[in-house]
Amino acid sequence: MIELVLGGARSGKSAYAESLLKRSGSNVVYIATAQAFDQEMSERILHHQLQRPAEWQLIESPLVLAETLDSLSNSEHYLLVDCLTLWLSNHLLADESSLAAEIDRLLAVLARMSCRVLLVSNEVGMGIVPENRLARRFRDEAGWLNQRVAQIADKVTLVTAGMPLVLKGQNL
Amino acid sequence: MIELVLGGARSGKSAYAESLLKRSGSNVVYIATAQAFDQEMSERILHHQLQRPAEWQLIESPLVLAETLDSLSNSEHYLLVDCLTLWLSNHLLADESSLAAEIDRLLAVLARMSCRVLLVSNEVGMGIVPENRLARRFRDEAGWLNQRVAQIADKVTLVTAGMPLVLKGQNL
Amino acid sequence: MIELVLGGARSGKSAYAESLLKRSGSNVVYIATAQAFDQEMSERILHHQLQRPAEWQLIESPLVLAETLDSLSNSEHYLLVDCLTLWLSNHLLADESSLAAEIDRLLAVLARMSCRVLLVSNEVGMGIVPENRLARRFRDEAGWLNQRVAQIADKVTLVTAGMPLVLKGQNL
Predict the structure, then answer these.
(1) At A54, which CATH number?
(2) Which of A162, B166, C119, C155 has the least CB density, counted as fewest CB within 10 Å?
(3) Residue A38: inside a domain, yes or no?
(4) Is residue C157 part of a domain?
(5) Is the bond leading into C83 cis (omega within 30 degrees of zero)?
(6) What is the pLDDT of residues A121-169, one digit of tens each?
(7) Nearest to B34 by CA among B68, B92, B82, B80
(8) Number of domains chain C is built from
(9) pLDDT bracket for residue C48 (50, 70, 90)
């Protein structure tokens, strides 16, 4: 089963996603896509780590997310990917030209996962058009990626101020 | 009947709107407000065109939208306006001083349409206050315009990651 | 009872909040957090003032909101705070170092209010990451503040294009 949890910055989407996994009682693999480029990012990563149960397995996968998921496709674990938009951003900064192929590969892997996967992603398209070209490209790609994942997802939830709103599927 | 489909950039709002018109089985007039100022915009316009049925009539109306709609007010066709925020932006760039009058004229025409009209519009107010004065003006005007159209609309839908959420009216 | 009304810029959140208070028939204290630094802000404040009933009491509280609310905690009035994000912004500009303590104080006061309080706040996290450090800080703090207030609120509503969507609680 594929679940997508969407939300803006500081919307509480990660905490909401984590609460779902905690309540499930499942063994969890937490797949982190964040890369600590600077002090600010390191602090954000640490802030998130401190809120997660110590027994959750951690895999850091800033770029090869498709391969990571593929290797776990028959896992008994409940997989939490946090977050899709950071993975997208990592690829955009690393090699813009291979982005389309990477996204296709990720979608193909997601479509054949037989374990439970929850993906967290940012909603970034509800502000003014950014003046920066790369920011516009990122905004476009993030919106398209969210649409494609939502389409194959069994459940899509939008989180605002910590409050979940189901956009697709039932409260499972 | 007036319908408003709102969404952020790359939210899938246009594709959702088009799916509604395709399913209706109606004859459609597609009213495009986009102007191709540059390569990037030309590509976006082409991208949208390729996804629309060839039998839909196309009217390009980047500025005189009120007049275009007025001339079709008794049409048997289902009219799709994509999108309101581009029309607003075109007027803001062309002549800021006449904007208020243009918006009043559009609202007056919408209120007396006797055919079915679906308008697509951008939600642009959920980010940080823009530093650019014109961007702030645009954000204000877009928000106010969306409110006024929503008020006279029979149905308002917000699209996020391709998923529709009805804010006003029923699933018609 | 604590109510939170969230929305983007020009979403109609203030007008929606005010309509709730008007319909309640209660005596209202309007607590304004806005400060007029410039012409543009003065116009926005005036625009809002003209839409409010003349009999509503007005308290301007750009910084000492916790103390203002505390002094009214047993009031028979229905209190409207418009808005939380301006109060946050005022503190961030005045003294960034005391912000955390100010927020804790406000939350503590809100938790023990025995009168009806409606707080209006901006959703600012659904755009692209701002390039400006202070804007990123503001976006983070606003998101976290909204989450904390939502958590203790009896009702949370998101307004888009003037249309309310209940995220928590019932239509009271």
Answers:
(1) 3.40.50.300
(2) B166
(3) yes
(4) yes
(5) yes
(6) 999 999 999 999 999 999 999 999 999 999 999 999 999 999 999 999 9
(7) B82
(8) 1
(9) confident
